Amino acid sequence: MVKFVLSFIFTFSFIYADLLDEKVKNLVDKESYLIHQKLIDIIFKNKSKFYKSTGEIDVVKVAKYLKDSGLLKLFFEAPATLNITFNTNQNPIFFMKLITNSLNAMGYYFFITKEAKREGNVFSWSISLTTEYAIDPTIFARELGKRNCKILDIIKNSKDSWEYIIDISKAKVLEAKEVRVDEFIELGKSINDYWLKVENGEILKIVSRKNNSWYPYVAFYDKNLNLVSIYKEDSKVIKSINIKVPENCLYIKISDIFTLNNIKNGFSVYLKGDMDVSRN
After folding, report:
1. Looking at the domain assignment, is residue 277 inside a domain?
2. Number of structural domains the chain divides into
């Protein structure tokens, strides 16, 4: 029995070590792996600490140790086209927003969608951008973490082609400003849509700032960013509107039918807890 247990432990450890080695080889490439194998053996001597309690490789931790040791090559010799594919099995629209906001926070604003597709329950979004270096997985993981998202795996197909598998099951819209019942919130100048988070309340009063030319487009979403309803008008709002907040709404996007330039001066918003409100 003891021999069986020892044999099982040895086999289990061997499999784990093999999986970790393969992931390291993938991230640093096989040639660099062979050149720096002694250093890699030292870095990953305690293999168990690079595994999660679920038994999966903590790929972000692996990437961090490789980066800190100078083994994760992210810089190109000259500006190049970087191709990245992001994969999830959750809401595509929410997923793309979370990825976009995370990339924007890292300074990546200009990229092109190459492909967006769903195969079975997996949604994949492929983008390309011109850059001098690949996205730093550790910084990307940190930005995603702020939004309650997790990187499950990183696959390096080549120095300029990467793939990420991401869990957004507990995600949140970091940019959404929380509005409580009977609370006035000021939304300052912006070049983007305005996002709110409302967990209660039945009526949202939106006051347009001076010099706006607002043609309302207000979208209501549930916690997974599934669209619940839309309020829009093709006539200009001079002062304010009151809109009923639908059930199951958690997020609200305030935008304009024509251009965000129409609302760049911002709004004041007030969340009311009763429905006895007339439009004014």
Report:
1. no
2. 3
17-31: average pLDDT: 88
- The pLDDT assigned to 5 comes to 32
Structure tokens at 38: 């002694």
Q: 15 pLDDT exceeds 50?
A: no
Can you give the pTM of this predicted structure?
0.82
Output DSSP code: residue 224: T
Q: How much is the pLDDT for 16?
A: 52
Contacts of 177 (CB under 8 A, 6+ apart): 185, 187, 194, 195, 196, 197
Question: Which one-letter amino acid corresponds to residue 4?
Answer: F
153 and 200, same domain (yes or no): no
Whether 140 contacts 151, CB under 8 Å: yes
280 confidence band (pLDDT: 50, 70, 90): very low
Query: Between β-strands 161-167 and 75-88, what pairing exists: parallel, antiparallel or unpaired?
Result: parallel
Residues 72/29, Cβ–Cβ less than 8 Å: no
Question: Mapping DSSP to helix (H, G, I), strand (E, B) and coil, where does residue 93 land?
Answer: helix
Note whether residue 280 is domain-resident: no
Q: Residues 264-280: what's their mean pLDDT? A: 74
User: Does the pLDDT value for residue 17 go beyond 80?
Assistant: no
Final residue belonging to a domain, choices 68, 83, 105: 68
Instruction: Return the closest-CA partner of residue 92 out of 113, 121, 128.
Output: 121
Rg of the chain over all Cα atoms, to the nearest angstrom: 24
Give the C-alpha distances (Å, rounded to integers) separating 190 from 12, 261, 262, 267, 269.
54, 9, 11, 10, 15
Q: What range defines the domain where residue 142 resides?
A: 75-167
3's enclosing H/E stretch is helix 2-28
Does residue 156 share a domain with residue 79? yes
> Are 162 and 207 found together in one domain?
no
- Residue whose entry in the numeric block shows the structure tokens 């999986």: 19
